[in-house]
UniProtKB/TrEMBL annotation:
Domain spans labelled Glyoxalase/fosfomycin resistance/dioxygenase: 6-130
Protein name: Glyoxalase/fosfomycin resistance/dioxygenase domain-containing protein
SUPFAM superfamilies: Glyoxalase/Bleomycin resistance protein/Dihydroxybiphenyl dioxygenase
Domain of life assignment: Bacteria
CDD domains hit by this protein: PhnB_like
Length: 137
């Protein structure tokens, strides 16, 4: 699988409705995972979206989630650029270059869902998410 580059949108509690709307617009398959699905229910967030992915027949990919508990939703922090795939070497190389001179919010390391994931903001103020898909095997 080649690396995938796409927008990742953050919502203020209405990610499910927004992504269902985008599915109506673009068609395709929508996968939704809630905070509760990953045992992160806490304070009324069990049914909120932790991660969603819409893959359209035209080849468009859109990802999104509700802001995590404790983080505020505001213009400027409601998007990131997502890089994902299973080419670990290439994705780690992108991570090193993107995070160099920027700031790391989440170190690139194995996460509870099994992938290696990190979040950084590059030296130009653009937020990035890098996800290295776990190997099936």
């Amino acid at each position: 699988m080649a690396s995938l580059l796409n927008p990742y949108l953050s919502f203020d509690g209405n990610a499910r409705q927004a992504l269902e709307f985008y599915k109506e617009v673009f068609g395709g398959e929508l996968r939704l995972n809630t905070y509760g699905d990953f045992g992160q229910a806490g304070a009324g967030h069990a049914d909120k979206i932790m991660h969603a992915m819409l893959a359209s027949p035209a080849g468009h990919t859109l990802m999104g989630a509700d802001m995590p508990p404790g983080m505020s939703h505001a213009p400027g922090n409601n998007f990131a650029v997502s890089l994902s795939g299973d080419d670990e070497s290439a994705l780690r190389g992108y991570w090193e270059k993107l995070s160099d001179g920027g700031s790391v919010a989440v170190p690139l390391e194995k996460q509870m869902w099994g992938d290696v994931f990190g979040m950084c903001t590059d030296r130009f103020g653009i937020p990035w998410m890098v996800d290295i898909t776990r190997s099936e095997g």
